[in-house]
Amino acid sequence: TLPILSSVRFDETLPNGLVVTVTRIPFGLAMQDPLREFHDDRSIDVAKTMGSIWLHVEDPATGAMVACAMYAADPLVVRCDTVDVMSGYRRKGVATALYRIASREFAAPVVPSPLLSDDAREFWKGKTQISWP
Count of alpha carbons within 13 Å of 11, Cβ hemisphere only? Predict the structure, then answer.
């Protein structure tokens, strides 16, 4: 697992045209850093010693928020802390795309978190990890 060593924010476009804002947060981000206002890693419940990735997805056609997610890693694995895809966009590959971005950013597969919602259990059914590409 590659650590996140500095904070950075960038946008990328998914194949379906949705725009993802990716924010990389290093472990131990200074309390006075302005990114903490919206990306406070103290709210993440999974191990985060290698940093965290925050993803915000918008539909550029409407400006509507489509999904948001937080991923964090320790030296061994990447896990999803939270992923929320709005109902009109579910089962269209949005969550899978976000998992793959997290895998790419940490250069490691994402494995399921030990605490899964009903939707997450359904998502992970038959999978043990998600990797980039």
Answer: 8
